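Hey L., structure's done. Input below.
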Amino acid sequence: MSTFSHRTGASALAAAALVLVLSGCAGSGGAPSARTPLPAPTSTATATAAPTPTPIPTVTVTVTATPEPSSTGSPSVDPTAARCTGSDLTMEYRPDPDASGAGNSAFDLVLTSTSSSDCALAGIPGVYATDAGGNRISAVADASGPNPDAPVILVPGAQADVRVAWHSPGAYGCTVGTSAYLVAEVLDAEDGAVRAPAELQVCTDGTVMMDASAYTLL
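Output:
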């Protein structure tokens, strides 16, 4: 066999083998299987909670009413009240040991209203000493300071004070006696005086050795 024939035969064999190979590949798998579709991506949305609003504080306004004046306070007084007389009052003698020194001293005469209505004390009372029988044995005390412009009004049960300065009779070289009462003339009238028990030395010859002040409401 010639060389050409040999090459031709080999080529034919190679071609036939290629056909067989291609036929086998085409039929070995049969119909191509359908592709399984990929799952669609799941969209996972994470909900974000809305921020909680900060509450606005509630402002409470409290209005406090001004209380009305109590009707149980100090009783009102009658500016037109009549003058107090001796029968409207009681009097107490109150010595003041702390005021003593160098032959001088002081005491208080406290007047209390026993009247059922208001009464007025005006000016400076006339203060003097008496014996047990009610006879005056001393001079009337000097007035200490001017008369006040307005009277002191006493409602029932109210009190007023008269401060009296006392000077030792020994400093005057006068005749000395001991009082049984002190009297305060609150009004120049028949019933114008009130008295209180009090024992103290006084000048009995008319020498003035006491000074009385105006009324002070207690």
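The chain has one helix and twelve strands. The first helix runs from residue 3 to 28.

-- N.
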